[in-house]
Amino acid sequence: MINSLRGMNDILGEDYERFTYFLNTASDVATRYGFHFVETPLLEETNLFKRSVGESSDIVGKEMYQFIDKGNNDVCLRPEGTAGVVRAFIQKKLDKKGGIHRYFYHGAMFRYERPQKGRLRQFHQFGVESFGVADVYEDASVIMMLSDILKALGIKYRLQLNSLGCQNCMPIYRENLVSFIQKHEDEICEDCIRRKSTNPIRVLDCKNKKCQEIYADAPQLLNNLCDECKSDFEKLKKILDENEITYEIDTKLVRGLDYYSKTAFEFVSDSIGAQSAIAGGGRYDRLVEFLDGKPTPGVGFAMGIERLLELIKMPERKRDGYYMGAMDEEAVSLVMKLTQQKRKTHKAIVEYKPKNLKTHLKNADKVNAKYCCVIGDNEMKNNTIWIKDLETKTENTIKIGEL
Ligand code: HAM
User: Fold this and answer.
1) Which atom of ligand 1 is nearest to the CA of 82?
2) 52 and 64 in contact (C-beta within 8 Å)?
């Protein structure tokens, strides 16, 4: 027997219902905020992710599904959605056009991680990217959109917030941090020693307990912001307060992708175990120029759909459509024909095998039909059909033409 690959799941049955309910809800909310759908390829040039997510990140360094294709191109399955959307934005010359462009997307992402609950190698994200607004009001808007999506799905969350500073204040902070790390080089883990030269701020979210204790005294990002970043962060908090979005400040929240500046955030759930991040995002004002576009500010987020599935409160399932059955072989083809007619406007499910009325009613209930329609001997003779409304429990025999 051939099974799916490790960390790659099928989505079907009840999970699929939750999945589509999530997508419909999230797409509705994003549309209400003025975002438009965008689809980008699953396969991209490897360099796209090296130059955006960053070579020092775990995603690019260890987790890419990367290979040389038959045309000798170095390609990889996308590990995230932002880089592809930014590439499309530049390729369509929207950076040159100026103005505001807001997109949402969903689809499969691939990361060669060690699979465990909530951590897959193929998973699905719903994400949004907004281009052209440098103002922190847009950061607040995308955070409120994410909060609206989670509220509509009945999902409780904690929002963690930080600012990563800009090209003016971040380099100074980075130097301070490197001096701090140097003083503790004998005590920290090997990964952190490596991060010191590749991307020092990543040491802050090292999972090693001893490292964590040491970094408790490290200089804090938020105390090193320039006036503009400080004022933006204050504005952001004020808007969130005014809109009753509660948040926690987490000065160690640095995100696992290198393209962020200023606002960084994560939404976490306390009900799904160790892989608790259900969404993450932030501002990436330099990413468009890193990928050779005209400098354009950007901000966005992505949600991990698999991690949300079990948290979604589904609406009560309503009975829907027709179940059609025959009691004798002779009536089956008529039942088929009527089903085909019904399918032009309604959901209709047909049973090919003749069965007694009790079994048809049971089957109709199982498929959650609203109406159970059955043709037997008598109905055949009289050109009628027996119909029961499974919601109101009323039953009737009507002329076939009236169905
Ligand atoms: P990210 O934090 O790497 O951000 O991923 C976003 C979400 O995807 C996570 O919060 C998590 O729910 C889900 N996720 C990540 N890895 C896995 C996995 N292995 N298995 C299951 N779910 C996973 C990004 O990808 C950025 N592109 C977000 C963004 C958009 N920033 C700005 N715009």
Assistant:
1) 27
2) no
Q: How far apart are CA 143 and CA 114, in angstroms?
A: 29
What ligand 1 atom has the least distance to the C-alpha of 53? 27
Tell me the backbone φ, ψ of residue 127, rounded to 5 degrees.
-135, 160
Give the list of residues 6+ apart from residue 253 with CB closer than 8 angstroms, or none. Answer: 160, 161, 162, 205, 264, 265, 266
pLDDT tens-digit series, residues 137-153: 999 999 999 999 999 99
| Residue of 350, 354, 391 lying closest to 373 (CA atoms) | 350
Does ligand 1 come within 6 angstroms of the Cβ of 111?
A: yes
CA angle 40, 129, 153 (to 5 degrees): 100
DSSP string, 315-359: PPPPP-SEEEEESSHHHHHHHHHHHHHHTTTS-EEE--S---HHH
The pLDDT assigned to 205 comes to 86
Query: Cα(67) to centroid of ligand 1, in Å?
Result: 22
Residue of 337, 259, 332 whose CA lies nearest to 299: 259
pLDDT at 351 over 90: yes
pTM over 0.85: yes
- Nearest to residue 160, comparing CAs of 20, 255, 74, 225? 255
Q: How far is it, in rounded angstroms, from Cα 52 to Cα 141?
A: 24
Query: Region 334-360: what's the mean pLDDT?
Result: 97
- Residue 204 CB–ligand 1 contact under 6 Å: no
What's the pLDDT at 163?
Answer: 97
**Mean of the per-residue pLDDT values of the chain:** 96
157-181 average pLDDT score:
95
Interval 248-272: pLDDT, tens: 999 999 999 999 999 999 999 999 9
Which of the following CATH numbers is that of domain 14-169+225-311: 3.30.930.10, 3.40.640.10, 3.30.870.10, 3.20.20.80? 3.30.930.10
322-402 has which CATH code?
3.40.50.800
Ligand 1 atom closest to residue 284's alpha carbon, by position in its atom list: 32
The residue to mutate among 80, 159, 284, 291, having the most atoms of ligand 1 within 8 angstroms of its beta carbon, is 80
User: What are the DSSP E strand ranges found in 12-157?
Assistant: 36-37, 43-45, 66-68, 74-77, 101-110, 122-131
- 3-state DSSP call for residue 401? helix
Relative to the CA of 111, which ligand 1 atom is closest? Answer: 19
Cβ burial 67-99 (10 Å sphere, 16+ → b, else e): eeeeeeeebbbbbbbbbbbbbbbbeeebbeeee
